[in-house]
Amino acid sequence: MVADLTWPEVDALRGAGPVLAVPVGSTEQHGPQLPLSTDTDLAVALATGLAARCPEVLVAPAVAYGASGEHSGFPGTLSIGQEALEFLIVELCRSATDTFDRIVLVNGHGGNVEALRRAVDRLRGESRDIRLYLPRYRGDAHAGRTETSLQLGLAPDRVRTGRIRRGDTRPLAEILPELRAGGVRAVSANGVLGDPTGASAEEGARLLTELISQLSEQVRQWWPEPVERIRP
C-alpha cells in the first residue's frame, strides 16, 4: 500500500516502473444487511488482489466517495456527484503521474462509470497512461445475492445476516424509468434490487477470485512488458 511507505521508499521504486492501482468506490446504502462501504470494499479487495499477484502494482488509498445520487433517499449515503468525481479523479491522476507512469482505476460502483470514463478520456488526451477497470459479472442490480455474497466472502462479520430481505426483483430494464425519475427509493423500500436470501461466502469468494483474475489479465494486456512476471 502506498500509504504505508515513505517518500524515499516510493522514489526507490520508480525505476521498476510501478503501476498505481486506485480503488474507486462509494459510500451509499446497500440495503439493511450490507455496510455503506460495500462498493469501496470490493474495489479495495480487487486492487489488493491484483497487487498480491503482481509485484509492480502499488495500491493507493481508496476514493470512498462517488456519484450515488440515485441512493439519496436513504440515510448514510454520501455522494459527491459526477462532476465532482470527474474533477477529483483528473486532479488525483495528474498528481500521481508525477511519480507513476501508469495508473489503473479500479471501480466498484456502477454510478461512477460515466464520470470515470470522462476523466480517463481527458487524462489520456493529455498523454497520461490511465486505464479504467470495470468488473464484469452477472447478478442482481444492487445489494442482492451477488453483492451480499461478495461481502460475506470478504468480511462476514460485517453482514447483518438477520436483516437479509429480498427487494424489488423486477428486471432492471423494467424499473429503469422509475429509477431515473425517483431513484432507488421509488422502487425499493429497503434499498435492495434483487434477492440476497441465497447469498453465501463460498459464492462470494469464488466470484472475487474470478474478478481478480479478470483484472490481472486485463492489466497484463495493457502493460505486457513489466507485468508479464505476474505471480501465479
How would you characterize the overall build of this protein?
The protein is an alpha/beta fold and 232 residues long. It has one domain (11-224): Creatininase (Rossmann fold), CATH 3.40.50. Helix content is 43%, strand content 9%. It is built from 8 helices and 4 strands; from the N terminus they run αβαβαβαβαααα. The protein has a 4-stranded parallel beta sheet with strand order 2-1-3-4, with helices on both faces. Strand 3 (102-107), helix 4 and strand 4 form a beta-alpha-beta unit. Helix 2 packs across helix 7, helix 3 (81-96) packs parallel to helix 4 (113-125) and helix 5 (145-154) crosses helix 7 (201-222). It starts with 6 loop residues before the first helix and ends in a 5-residue tail after the last helix.
Q: Give the percentage of residues in beta strands.
A: 5-15%
> Rounded to an integer, what's the Rg over CA atoms?
18 Å
Order of strands in the sheet with most strands: 2-1-3-4
Query: What general form does the structure show?
Result: globular
SSE string? HEHEHEHEHHHH
Number of domains: 1
* Span between termini: 20 Å
Helicity, as a percent range: 40-55%
